[in-house]
Specification:
3 helices
Length: 171
């Protein structure tokens, strides 16, 4: 019985790890591509990552949002595993170097995780199972907005629980 459990664990956690690595690679590629456009147009871009009809993990076509939001329709031909979006250009009036509470709540509502790219070039992963946002990589790991100023919005932690993020955004 223990051998079956071990085999089951190895097979399914190995598959999940491979999917997570592929998902992260796709998120990083699409967000790297979208960052310059997001800065130029001063708006967010968003979409989804998931399996197409052939069982291949892909990113959906990005949708243009507004200065501080984006809402993409769910693609009918994609089994969604995660969302992705940019945070637009650097703006001193908007704390866009961390995911927002709305980012976390929206992903949680639809039972998916998410990836967020910031003007400082940070890549965040939102884990809605435990409601934590953590940096996959920090400043300059993705394209950086020309107007970005490090520390311009205070210190940014490596990760935030949902409650800690609410506290950060209230300050």
């Amino acid at each position: 019985m223990r051998i079956r459990a071990l085999i089951f664990t190895l097979v399914f956690t190995g598959h999940a790890a491979a999917q997570d690595a592929d998902e992260l690679r796709i998120a990083r590629e699409i967000l790297t591509e979208l960052q310059p456009l997001s800065f130029e147009k001063k708006r967010e871009y968003c979409g989804y990552i998931g399996y197409n009809e052939e069982g291949v993990l892909i990113a959906s076509r990005p949708v243009s949002g507004t200065l501080d939001g984006c809402s993409a329709p769910f693609p009918r031909n994609l089994a969604i595993t995660a969302s992705y979006h940019t945070h637009g250009d650097f703006d001193h009036g908007y704390f866009n170097e961390v995911p927002s509470d709305i980012d976390m709540e929206g992903d949680k509502q639809f039972y998916m995780n998410g990836y967020v790219a910031t003007p400082g070039g940070r890549l965040w992963y939102i884990d809605t199972q435990i409601m934590v946002a953590r940096q996959i990589c920090g400043i300059s790991c993705l394209p950086v907005a020309a107007g970005f100023r490090k520390g311009g919005m205070g210190d940014v932690a490596e990760s935030y629980s949902y409650d800690a993020l609410l506290d950060k955004l209230r300050d």
